[in-house]
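User: Here's a chain of 338 residues. Predict its fold as tokens.
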Amino acid sequence: MTALSSENCSFQYQLHQANQPLDGNCLLFLIILGKILLNILTLGMRRKITYQNFMEYFCVSLAFIDLLLLVNISIISYFRDFVLLGIRFTKYHICLFTQIISFTYGFLHYPVFLIACIDYYLNFSKTTKLAFKCQKLFYFFIVILIWISVLAYVLGDPAIYQSLKAQNVYSYQCPFYISIQSYWLSFSMVVILFMAFLTSWSEVTALVQAVRMTSYMNETILYFPFSSHCSYTLSSKKTLLPKFIICFLGTWLPFVLLQVIILLLKVQIPAFIEMNIPWLYFVNSFLIATVYWFNCHKLNLRDIALSVDPFVNWKCCFIPLTIHNLEQIEKPISIIIC
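Assistant: Prediction complete.
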């Protein structure tokens, strides 16, 4: 691992050195192919009935960019040396394209996180009401804009340009960018989860001991057999926090443990691998839980327009009363109460 620094640059690039990247084109192809298969598997496993949101559109665009990169690598590897539109393409461009994509992915974490957070907040507060087609066009435009903006920043940054230009001289080296944004974002989420768990660990333990899993409306839900006489109000953040933690960790605990291991061992993963759809859905669930928790006083039990998580079913996760036969209920009970 090496670091590329510049006096005129406000950040530090951490680069992964490969001695002979041209001989590793096959390995690079397999890595990207594996990532694409993981993207397809994740997209296939997600809940199909979801509301329109920015993160869904961005995940689809990321899968498309990964596929486009794989196609470019395959074409260049097959033809080895060819001219297209007056531009000569060689195996060197495999490294170049992957570097550009790696830098672009590395700078996308903060913007995507911020835009998704704003999107869920606006949808939850219902401050914006757009028609379905207008909403789709709006998300499509935002996704295209963020890709173009970050790519333009990467190509226009002097430090990045010099690092890419240097590879033309030292073609035996192919450094890949290690994203600082993903590190701090992962670190922040893990710390917040740890603090939230410590704050309500006794309530979480009690809920885990009382929980039982059952089937309702052809879906697996978590049923907490507590009485309706609760010491907290419906909008109490203290009441909802342990339930949110159980709901979130019940789905993402292996991924959280993976993030902890990566942080503790300081594993440096190239940005073109680290930016993937499972990671984005993990961030997505974290954002939904955060927005719900901060706006718990606005939760409407009968509101069917709440954002639906592709993996965590926040709406049907908790049943409010002690119900012995769930199948006798005609309508689903919407959201979390004590």
